[in-house]
Amino acid sequence: MSASILFDAPGPKTVARHRVYNVVSAVALVALVAFAIWRLYDRGQLEYRFWEPFLTPDYIRFILVDGLLKTVQMAFFSIIFATVFGLVFGVGKLSDHAFVRWPAWLVVEFFRAVPVLLLLVFVFFWLSIGDGPVTPFWVVVISLTLYNGSVLAEVFRAGINAVPVGQSEAAYAIGMRKTQVMVTVLLPQAVKIMLPAIISQMVVALKDTSLGYYITAPGLTAVAKPIYLEFKNQVPSAIVITALYILVNLLVTLIATKVQKRLVGEKEMLQVSRVGAGPDEPKTI
Prior knowledge:
By secondary structure, the protein is mainly alpha-helical. The chain has two domains: about 35 residues; about 220 residues, MetI-like fold (Orthogonal Bundle). The protein has eleven helices and no strands. The radius of gyration is 25 Å and the shape is flat. The chain starts with a helix and ends in a 9-residue tail after the last helix.
C-alpha cells in the first residue's frame, strides 16, 4: 500500500526495460572482469612464480597471523572504544549544561575534521616515536577511536533526536529524571535507528586500519610489502590482500546485519505484545 503511494507500479514495458538494463549490466561486468584477466595474462602476472607465496603454508600463516589477525584485532578494539567514545560525547552534546555540551561539541567536530592519516602521523610522533610508550598497533587503535568515535557521536546524537518527542515527554510525566529517560527510554529505541550507520562505520574502521602501513603498524598492508619485494608480484599481492579485506568486511556486515535483525525483531515482538495485551492482562515492559 505504501509503495503504491510513493511511486507508480511499473508497467510491462518498464519491467522489460529493467530486465534489459540488468542483462546489459551483467554483460558489461563480465566483460570488465574478462578484460582484467586478459591484461594480467598478457603482462605475465598469472605465472605461477608470482602466486607461489599465496599457496605456500609458511607464507599463508604469515599473512593470516601477522596480517589478517592483527588487522581484525586493531579494528575490533577501535570499534569497541569508538562506540564508547561516541556514546559519551554524543550524549554530552545533548546535555543541558553548557560546560558539558560545548567541550563535547569541540572534541567531536575537531576529530571529525582531521584526516585519519594526519591523525595517525600526529599520534605516532607524539606517543610512539623514539622512547614513546605506545606501539604502532595502539597508535592505529587510538587514532581510529578518535575519528570513528567522533562520527559515531553524531550518529548517537541523531538517533536519539530521531525518537519521537512524545516518548520522552511521557517519561518525564511519570517522574523520570533525564538520565533515566536517556538510558531506559531514548537509547533503546534509538538503537534501531542507529544500527545501519554503526555497521557502516565498523566497515570504515576495518578498512582504515590499512593506513597503519604508513607508520609501520602491523596488518595486511604491512605483510604484503616483504612478499612483493621478494617475488616482484605487486599486482597479485594487491589482489590477494584486497580480497581478504573484502571477505572480512562482508563477514562483519553479515554478522552485524544478523544482530540488527534479531534486535529489531525482538523490539517488534515487544510492541506486538503491548498492543495485543488485554485490559486485564499484564503488558510486557
